[in-house]
Amino acid sequence: MELTRMRPADRTGTAQRPLRVLLTTDWWEPVVNGVVASVATLRRELLALGCDVRVLTLSPGMRTRSEEGVYRIGSVSAGLFYDRARLGMPAGRRVLREILHWGPDVVHSHCELSTHMWARRIAKSLGVPLVHTYHTIYEDYTHYYSPSRTVGRKVVATFSRGVLAGTDAVIAPTAKVARLLGGYGVHRPVHVVPTGLDLHRFRPARTVAEQSDVSALREDLGITAGQKVLVSVSRLAKEKNLDEVLDLVAGTGREDTVLVLVGEGPYRAELEARAAALGIADRVRFTGVVDPAEVQRWYRIGDAFVSASRSETQGLTFIEAQASGLPLLCRRDPSLDSVVIAGRTGWQYETAAEFSSRLDELLDDGALRREMSRAAVEHARATCGAQEFGQAVLEVYQQVQRRRSPLIIAPQAVAA
């Protein structure tokens, strides 16, 4: 589709109306992942700050449609490359005409493929800033497209430089991601803005109804009153490194411990086979697909949250777990340094022996576990607020607009 360029001089009167923000993402509800959680939270907070916000995403089928501020462009499955992935169709002219007529002041893309191409074209045609949040550490996914991690990293670096070259600013969820982009040779302004979460649903079981629900869930999973529960919430995919979690749980030799893997994914059969081979199938529970509106129930059944993932950009499920009162026991990763406070909200481990030692310390000392649970809740609520997230992103928009402002031609200058 040919888009008509709008001169900056034509975009007047923005100070008299709410800032118009177009968020673009290949993933959207009802899909459940970190990108969707981040974009949904940002949309809600920007609306609360008085912005006019719309979303451009992909339809789950070939039909293009719009609904309540969400535009969905028809798409086809790309599951051959990555489970549940989709590619946008070169259609959607009506939707794009609507977006151009609406006229966003800032375009903020959140994925690097289909919708990012539309984001670039819309921003260029309207002469408005393009901001991009780099959510995914692609080099942790090289097993999907390259037998060599070294070659895969070079491909990712080249790809990332190309995608980000046309942006006015890049948002990185953590300093780890910012350093990674620097190593790729990305030379755009990078702002580190941790993703905030709406944590009102995530809290320890306190009411009689919540405590009864915990008991019922444990009973449904065949977990006895004397058993300790380790919870992991993630997509069951190879990059989440859940093989290691199974190995570690088996290596502890703790017969009083049950591991609950909350989620579904293409790697489930391999994980079930590994649990059986390790002789711990009777101490591992697979919940399958969980309604995202009820995921907080599954955190509450746990005594600790465990993860061996190395593909996190910030670890939103780790924060949800903390807010639910779960101490964390996770593989060491710089992206978690501000989340896992050693000895206070949990530990990061490097070896199997360290994992086993810290787990024993946590599960065998009830007073310590209760104190770490309280600290985890306090830390999550103090550092990961959704309001602060929305305000920080809005400030990035304002900065890129100020940087572009000298290029805007005043109406009287045009007349002259």
UniProtKB/TrEMBL annotation:
Key words, A-Z: Glycosyltransferase, Transferase
PANTHER family: SULFOQUINOVOSYL TRANSFERASE SQD2
Top-level taxon: Bacteria
Name of this protein: D-inositol 3-phosphate glycosyltransferase
Record keyword Transferase present: yes
Keyword Glycosyltransferase: yes
GO molecular function: 1,2-diacylglycerol 3-glucosyltransferase activity
